[in-house]
Amino acid sequence: MPSTSCPPKQAFSKRTNPASHGMLLTFPPRSPDFPITSIIPPMDRLHTLHFLWLFSAAPVLAGYPIWWSLALGQQYSSFGSQPILCGSIPGLVPKQVRFCRNYLEIMPSVAEGVKLGIQECQHQFRGRRWNCTTIHDSLAIFGPVLDKATRESAFVHAIASAGVAFAVTRSCAEGSTTICGCDSHHKGSSGEGWKWGGCSEDADYGVVVSREFADARENRLDARSAMNRHNNEAGRATILDHMHLKCKCHGLSGSCEVKTCWWSQPDFRAIGDHLKDKYDSASEMSVEKHRESRGWVETLRAKYSLFKPPTERDLVYYETSPNFCEPNPETGSFGTQGRSCNVTSHGIDGCDLLCCGRGHNTRTEKRKEKCHCVFHWCCYVSCQECVRIYDVHTCK
Ligand SMILES: *[C@@H]1O[C@H](CO)[C@@H](O)[C@H](O)[C@H]1NC(C)=O
Ligand SMILES: *[C@@H]1O[C@H](CO)[C@@H](O)[C@H](O)[C@H]1NC(C)=O
């Protein structure tokens, strides 16, 4: 009989098993793409054409992955019920197209993961001058902002690759695909008075998928590729570092005769919070060129020797960000005019900093709210509607 009282979640850091990193390659390849004719419903064909049209009419040369647009493409929200045309997903390099065809089943989670990363980015940056805005009618979904090797680029790469690892791991544990599942290394007694049970999330698998897919285009010998690889890996490491044990008690109520535990991923918010700290403390690098047998290779070295050099868990960048105060189509800055700011805050969300010293306008806004709510026995609540007046401050 399950009991009602459970000990608090225990936090351990999960040691990862490097030997398992090769496992992705051992799965049998999955079925190839569906043939383009006949199966595609007319709507899907329309969407695909629209995508292709965007792609050909305005060739996009973004410094970041075009396939991130998977996160915004309406047609990918119902993956699974519709055929996925790997060859028509914009911005995939050949290795990614092969991956897509071989692991078609996990493509919905890849798209979901990028979406999760972008949503978290928008949450973390909501009160800042650059707030992670995406542009829906372009395949370069962040505009030119991320073309430069800035802190913002570092953060988005890290959170997107973490999102992919996270979403793939989650969907494996939920049993939504046949090619992956729970981490089966943990069985029987733990030797610490409890038993392995439930479904341990196999974050190593998600990390391998993210590494294979998200890093596939980062194989150039230049500095930007090195930076993207580093930040992608830092994002994924955050997931592994935040794995924790969840436990449940079984037995007569109140007792904990049998305790079962399993590895679980953190809330994605914890990943976002952690990477936001890494954004604030990101390391500025300088680019060095070496002549090697494969040709000229660019590597990154910490710019300031006074500071501690970055570890593999830190974010790195080598170009300074614009200040994002004024709109500028070249840098992709939208400016902060019209943004709402917080008059009492002295931080970056405060009117002084957010409005870049231009000052702000104040207007009042009436909002209807529920109030004087009364609970009636039994069981409903009745409320009145009140109008409350708020001051809204927006940047000049
Ligand atoms: C983000 O910034 C854009 C451009 O300045 C603005 O239109 C949008 O409302 C902002 N979003 C939030 C959540 O503040
Ligand atoms: C504005 O900033 C103050 C001080 O930092 C904070 O306590 C308050 O919650 C903020 N208000 C909003 C609406 O974010």
Automatic annotation (TrEMBL):
Transmembrane parts of this sequence: 51-70
Keyword Transmembrane: yes
Record's GO cellular component terms: extracellular space
GO molecular function, one term: cytokine activity
Subcellular compartments: Secreted, Extracellular space, Extracellular matrix
Family stated for the protein in its record: Belongs to the Wnt family.
The name this protein goes by in its record: Protein Wnt
